[in-house]
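Task: sequence design from structure.
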């Protein structure tokens, strides 16, 4: 149980740090947020929970293949905001664009036999 709490505290601290840095410097906040912190944490938690090198390796490869559709979020959001779309609507729409991209991308990867 304490491990679950520790995971939450560490993960939450990173999100809080990123939001605090963003108030002072968007560039450094972008650097911090662009780091694959979620992936690193997930890989570390998986390793500490299982000690299974194959599982960690498999997750790492899966992350590499599946990260591409998330880029569309970072294209759609600033474009929508520049076009005057209100923030809440823009972020929901950017999430929808990304979700559709994920569905299509996963279907494509399945057809190509990538992943499991």
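Answer:
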């Amino acid at each position: 149980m304490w491990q679950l709490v520790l995971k939450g505290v560490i993960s939450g601290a990173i999100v809080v740090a990123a939001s605090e840095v963003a108030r002072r410097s968007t560039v450094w906040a972008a650097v911090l947020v662009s780091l694959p912190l979620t992936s690193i944490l997930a890989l570390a938690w998986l390793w500490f929970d299982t000690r299974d090198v194959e599982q960690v390796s498999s997750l790492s490869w899966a992350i590499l293949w599946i990260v591409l559709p998330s880029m569309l979020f970072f294209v759609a959001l600033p474009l929508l905001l520049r076009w005057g779309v209100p923030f809440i609507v823009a972020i929901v729409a950017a999430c929808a664009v990304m979700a559709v991209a994920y569905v299509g991308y996963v279907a494509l990867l399945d057809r190509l036999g990538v992943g499991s």
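The chain has a mean pLDDT of 89.
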